[in-house]
Structure formats: structure tokens, C-alpha cells
Hints:
The structure holds 3 protein chains of 3 kinds. Chain B is α+β, with helices and mostly antiparallel strands.
Amino acid sequence: xxxxxxxxxxxxxxxxxxxxxxxxxxxxxxxxxxxxxxxxxxxxxxxxxxxxxxxxxxxxxxxxxxxxxxxxxxxxxxxxxxxxxxxxxxxxxxxxxxxxxxxxxxxxxxxxxxxxxxxxxxxxxxxxxxxxxxxxxxxxxxxxxxxxxxxxxxxxxxxxxxxxxxxxxxxxxxxxxxxxxxxxxxxxxxxxxxxxxxxxxxxxxxxxxxxxxxxxxxxxxxxxxxxxxxxxxxxxx
Amino acid sequence: xxxxxxxxxxxxxxxxxxxxxxxxxxxxxxxxxxxxxxxxxxxxxxxxxxxxxxxxxxxxxxxxxxxxxxxxxxxxxxxxxxxxxxxxxxxxxxxxxxxxxxxxxxxxxxxxxxxxxxxxxxxxxxxxxxxxxxxxxxxxxxxxxxxxxxxxxxxxxxxxxxxxxxxxxxxxxxxxxxxxxxxxxxxxxxxxxxxxxxxxxxxxxxxxxxxxxxxxxxxxxxxxxxxxxxxxxxxxxxxxxxxxxxxxxxxxxxxxxxxxxxxxxxxxxxxxxxxxxxxxxxxxxxxxxxxxxxxxxxxxxxxxxxxxxxxxxxxxxxxxxxxxxxxxxxxxxxxxxxxxxxxxxxxxxxxxxxxxxxxxxxxxxxxxxxxxxxxxxxxxxxxxxxxxxxxxxxxx
Amino acid sequence: xxxxxxxxxxxxxxxxxxxxxxxxxxxxxxxxxxxxxxxxxxxxxxxxxxxxxxxxxxxxxxxxxxxxxxxxxxxxxxxxxxxxxxxxxxxxxxxxxxxxxxxxxxxxxxxxxxxxxxxxxxxxxxxxxxxxxxxxxxxxxxxxxxxxxxxxxxxxxxxxxxxxxxxxxxxxxxxxxxxxxxxxxxxxxxxxxxxxxxxxxxxxxxxxxxxxxxxxxxxxxxxxxxxxxxxxxxxxxxxxxxxxxxxxxxxxxxxxxxxxxxxxxxxxxxxxxxxxxxxxxxxxxxxxxxxxxxxxxxxxxxxxxxxxxxxxxxxxxxxxxxxxxxxxxxxxxxxxxxxxxxxxxxxxxxxxxxxxxxxxxxxxxxxxxxxxxxxxxxxxxxxxxxxxxxxxxxxxx
Lengths: 237, 396, 397
């Protein structure tokens, strides 16, 4: 693995509160994800999964440690990036538990929104969006409203949105939770495909039994600490 | 709301937006102070103007008589009442003669006594005359005797003196007689006067007529000149009409009149102006015209209100405009003439006006000109206007 | 960049439009209140303009003839006509009263005028001018009369021959123009019972009912029932002369007061309308506050309904400024719809109001500015809520 590209976390800790009531959500977490790799992060609820995602997503500030994204040190015992919002927009893609599409924008504009926010003109942004939708086999629903799509279709659109600005990193929070096993495996297949295609490092937080066997590498997080494991890497058909 | 065709919300919204914009535009330009003033327009044409004068008046009797005594007294009896028709000479009322009869008798007695006094004076005068004649005869005889010196001068003088004295006595007696005669004349005149006063106790109708008021009842005291009864000749009822001085041009005797009595508003009566009062009312600024009925209506009362319309000769074939078109700028009359679609004030000279609102134009307009008749608001030179057919919903 | 506010509005257009309509009606009421105030001032102006006078000559020490009752002899106008600089002077009588038409009573301001003189109705909208010296009338359309109607004023029946409009008293009562003499009789002649009583009292009075002077009683009774007073003389000043100078001349007569146009406006607007304008001012403030509250509530609710989307937008990298702008634009859009609906509604229902509602273009512009400002202020509540959202909440857990 080329040093720094992908995701690299060293000694990341996050303490909520102070004094007697302090809670250590993350203790000295180390992780690395190579570009093109899809890594699972599993653990019981309350183990710190969400906190880790939030730190990586630059929405909360860790207590200390170092985070490197796409070759850039974003945190080293203090934020090293001036505008975290721009970081999130351009360098990180988010996939949520629920699709969370913007209900008043159609499918194309939902995906094109991020490039537009990044400054691309509307035509180019929409072209990019259609490209991604095609890759996700959602081109035929390009003009539909989110409310007209099924859960699986919405999830695919949200994946397209996450990729819209070609971020080096995607953070996925329980992306398969609402899906049945067939759909869930399909999503994992897509993620692996796109990760390889665009050389994106993807962390998937999950406790979905259906997809855990598909990871090549896993991180098990418990009480704020991570243990790297080898995955079963069950083949995705 | 389920529609057969699915119309996207965008279209609804745009439709709503367009409707709003159109509505707003309409509101801004067509209503409120920015909108042009709506007017109606009349063409000036030639027509006839039938001017007429209008006034209100009261029905009055041309002549009315106040019947009353010439001296203060008490009313003894009243023989007629309001509404009675009376004939000339009919006894209407009588005053209480009080002591008049006694006074007439006393005057008669005094006259009789005066007559006796005259007789006495005449007898005395006769006596004086006979004495004087005798004395004159004596004096003549003695004068003749004295010439023949048959009597003394003394006797002659005495006889002469007697003649003179009886002459004087005769003169005195004759003047006494004249005096007694004058006295008699005076007392007889007195008696006549008192008698005539007794006649005046009788109040008689001076002419045929109808009693219109009874002002004193038997027993009440009235002074000289106070009316006990008022008498009117119903055939002399006419309408005294009052016309505004400013609108009485052409008022003349002989004008035909339509009279509408307040009591019979649906039956106008015909009449004619018989007199125009030479003195007008300067306080109310009205001229008075007396209008006689052509045929006297049966049931009409004096003091009743009437409306009188006097018809003046029709003026044929002149320029007319509705009087609603006439406006005044200062003391100048004019109309709003449409020139090139804009109103311009054109001064005009006004002529006669008919009661239904047609105004004759003597000068200032030509036939075919268009003038503004009705407008929504006051016009100014060159105001923006919009000509419409009518400003109000047509009346029922 | 697309307009997020626009897309959101298009997406929930029905709710937006319905709120806009509701807000618009409220704004329409506000406009109407302001229009009523303007209408009252305009009523006063129209009253003064319509009379065609430059000066109002009234009883000394009164504020008549509109604000206070005033009585002057009806031959005063002749003396006034003799003064220099005066083109026309005419008597007028004013009286507010009920007139009957059939079974209905209508409240009017009776105007006794002389045809062609100041005080006459300046223009007609139907019918003709009065041609007879008695018992004809010209009515303002607000009375509901039409030409040909017979109406009863005190003792007499009058025929309505013409109609005018916008001739109202400062209290909003429509005017009814009748010949001056008739108005004098109406104003100063009492009802039949009172006259009969007065006659009886005069007959009982031995100093008035002298037996030795027949005809005295009749003359006295005649003078008691004749009316020779009017309320004011309206004066038109000749071109080139100053109304103030002429008014000064008239005041010097000591038994008369003369007001020029400016003073009459002051009397009518400052004194007659003062209370009403305060009330209306209060109403306007209250309505503005209520409108602001509605906009604030609506925008806040709409924003709260989007909390999750706001969190997601913030997380994926949307500027705070953009989000605030979206809320603000929605508030302004709502305000714009409300303004347009309100202006149209106020124009449409204005004529139905019993008082004259006048909406000036300047007022509309001012109203627009106020609506926009109110919307900006009202949106701050929603904007605050949007900005406070923590993007981390989008990541569940």
C-alpha cells in the first residue's frame, strides 16, 4: 500500500465529557484502508463505530491521534485542514443508513448536487450524475422523484451521490440495514466494483450478518478499541 | 384531488404565478387613481326646447272679507258657521245693542223736545212781530201827528223808541227761532246717527260667498275692526305662485299653466296667468304670479299647496345639450368638449332650459360636437378618459 | 447551482400556495385598513373639492359648517358679493338626517344649494341636473337611489332626477342635493306637532295676541315658521386675488368667520379624523405583527420538517450560507405571494366596504417593502433553527 493514500488512522482517541463522568468512546484506534479496498467495521452497539465515522467524517473533533485521508493529514492532534466542510464535500463520500435523498430534488439533481456545490456548472454536473447512475443501473429513473423509488433504488442513488465528486474515501454507515439478503449482496458487489474502478477506500460500518462474510478484512471494535481480523472473503457472485 | 391527467406541481405553480401577475397588472392599471376616468359622451344635435317655469304656491281667494263691527261691543248671535254659503245682504251675525236702543230713544226724545222749543220760539217770534208791527204803525201815526204839532215831541220820541225796541225784540226772537231750528237739526242728526249705529249691530254679507272662518262666538267682546267672520268668494280662488327670480325669464300674463294640487297629485288642472305681481319678494328672491283655474275644482281649500308649471313657447330647431354637461368655471358656463379624444373646456352661452333637462346653446358649440355628459370624477384639461356607454347599471 | 428554495417550493407547492393565500388575505385586510384611512382623508378632500369653494364663511367662533353647526342670515351673501376679489358667493345648507324611500331609511347629508353656484354637485353620473325650484333631488349613488325614485324628506316628496358619485360627508354619509329653500325649510322648520304647540303658545301669550291689533297674531305666526338662515356661504375668489386676503376682509366684519382651503383641511383631518386614524394606526401595527408571526411560524415549521435533509446537506458539504439563503428565499417567496394576493384581494373587495377605500401606488410600494422586511425578520427564527443543526446527527448511532 502506498503510504498515506486511502485511510490511515493512528492512535485516535475521543473522550466525551470530563472528570468523573468522562466517557472514552475511542481508545487508541489504529486502522488503515488501501485505495480500492472495502473494509468492514463491526462491533456491538455503543462500541464506538459511529464515533469513529464521525471523526473520520470530520464532523466531530477527536481528542488526540492522527488521521490521514487520501495522502493528506487532516488531523494530527488538531485539525490540519482549514475548511472541514470543503473536505467533506470533495474528499469524503457518505452513505447513510437510510438513503436520505433530498426529497425536493429529482434523482439526477440529487446526484448532481455535490458537483454543483463544488463549483461545476449545472450541465457538467448533470452529465457526471448520469454517468454514475448508468454505472449503478439507475439511468432509466434519472428524472424520477425520490418518493417514487423503492428502497433499493434509493440506496443506489445515494451511492451514486457519494461518488459524485470522486472522493478518495467513502464512509458507509449500515448501508444494507434495510435490505434483504439479495439486495444487500448486490450493494456489496457494487461497492466492491466501484471501489476497484475508482480506487476509492471504503469503510463499511455494519452488523449485518448477511454481508460480514464478504469482507476481505475486518476491524472489530469493542469498547473503543479495534482489532484487525481477516475476513472470510466469501465470494460475491 | 385526483386528476385524470397528472399535471406536475411545476405547471400548477407556474399557472398560479401567471394568474397572479395578470391579476396584479390589471389591478395596477385599470383601477385606483392611475386608471383613466370613465365618461359618457353626447353628440350636440339640433332639437326643440320647451322651456317652462316652475313654482310652488298656495291657493288663495282673490278677495276675502273680514266681517266685523265698527264699534267695540259684544257679539250677540252668530247665525252661520264655517262652510256655509251665504247670499249678499244675508244677516250673518248680530252684536249686542246694549244701551243703543235706550240711546236711540233718548235721542228721539231730545229731538222731540227740540221741536217743541222751535214751536215756542216761532210763537215768540210771531208775538214780537205783531208788537213790532203795532209799534211801527204807532210811530208812523205819531210822526204824521207830530208834523201837524198835534202831539208832543216827547210822545213822538217815545213811540219812535218803542218802534226801535220792538224791532230789536223781533230780531232777537227770530234769531232764537233759528237757533232752536239748528238745535233741532243737530238733535235729529244725532238721532239718525244713533239709529244707524243700531243698524251696524247687524252684520250682513256684502256679497255672495262662503264663510271660511268664525272668529268670535256669541258673548265674546270684539273691538272695532276685529273680524267675527271671514267671507270668501269661492269663485275667486286662484293660485298665488312663487317663482325664483333667477328662473323666471319670460313670465308674462296669459301663459298657460298646469296646476297640481297637493290634495290631488294625479290630476293636474289647467289654468292661466292672470296677473304678475308688480312687487316681488326681495327677501325670498321670488316673483309672484297669480294663476286662475280654467275650471274651478270642486273640493279645494284655501291655503292648500299647489305646484304650478307655466309653459313657455317652444323654441324649435336649436342646438341642445343635456344640462348635466354644463359646468361652471368661476362665473363662466361651459362644457367639456372632446378634442382629439381629450376633454377641453369650451365656454358656451346658455339659452333656455326645459324642465326635463335640455339646455339650449346659443354660442360656443357646433352640431356634431361631442361633449362629456357624465363622468366618474372632476375632469381637467386633457385628463385621460375612457368613453363608455353608461356609468351606472341601467335603472329598472 | 440550482435554487434549493425554488425546488422546495415547487415540491410542496400546494402547502406553499395555501399559506400564501392565507397570508395574502391577512395582508389584504391590512391594506384595506390603510385604504380606509386614506379614504377618510380623501373623503375630506373630496368634500372640500366638490364644493367648488375657495372660502367657507360661517358663524363667528364656530368651526362650521362640517365640524360644528353654524347659522348665518341668508342675505349675508349679498354683502359678501360686494367685497373686492370675489367672483361668486352662494348660500348652502347642510344637515345630516334620515330620508325615507318606501319602507327604508337612508342616512344622508342633505345639501341645500343654488344651481350653478358653489355647493352644487360638480358632475353627474346619470340623469340630469335639477331644473325645478322645489322637490327635486340629485343623489350620490351610495344612497342606492336611481333617477325616478320618490323619496320623502320631512313634509314633502322629492323626485330623484340625477345621480353623482363620491359626494360624501366627512363621516362617510352620501350626499343628497336639494334646492336651498327646501333645505332651509327642512332644517329650521319643526315637525307638525311642534308647530301646533308653538301656535297654541303664541295664541295664549297676551302680549303677542293683542285684541286691539288684528292681524298681529297672524304675522307673528308667519314669522315663526319662516326660515331665513343658512349654514354657510361658499365663496369663489377671483383669479389673481389671494383667498387669505379676502378671508381677512370677511373676518373683519366681526360677526363672521371665514376659513380658506388649508384651514378647512386642517379642521376636517386633524379634528374629525384624528380618533379614527389613531384606531386604524393601532390596527395596522397589530395586523403587521400578526402577519410577521404567521410568516415566522410557517417558515419555522417548514424548516423543522426538513431538519434531516438540512443535516445531510450540511454533512455532505453545503455552506451554511446556502442553507440560510434557502430559508430566507422561501420566506421572501411567501411574502411575495402574500403581497400580490393581498393587493388583488384588497382591490376586489374594497368597493364593498361601507367607507371609501383608497389604495395609492405609493402605499402599495411601501406595503411591499414592509412585507419583505417582515419576511426577512420572520425568517430569522427558521434560519437559526437550520444553522443549529449538527451535521453529525446524519450519521446515526
